[in-house]
Amino acid sequence: MRTTVLYLFITLLASGPIAVAQIDKKATKETKALYKNLGLLAKEQILFGHQHATEYGHGWFGDEERSDVKSVTGSHPAVIGIDFSGLSGRSQDAMIRTSEALRRNVLDTYNRGGITTAAWHFSNPASGGGFYWKDSVSVAAMALIKPGGSHHEKYKEILKNVASFANSLKGNDGTLAPLLFRPYHEFDGDWFWWGKGHTSREDFISVWRFTVSYLRDSLNVHNFLYTFSPDNKFSSEAEFLERYPGDEWVDMVGMDNYGDFGRDGKYNLEAGLKKLKIVSDYAKKAGKLAAFTETGLESIPNPTWWTETLLKTLKAEKMNLAYVLVWRNDAKSPTHYYAPYPEQVSAPDFMKFYNDPYTVFEKDLRNIYK
Question: Iron-sulfur as a keyword (predicted)?
Answer without folding.
Answer: no
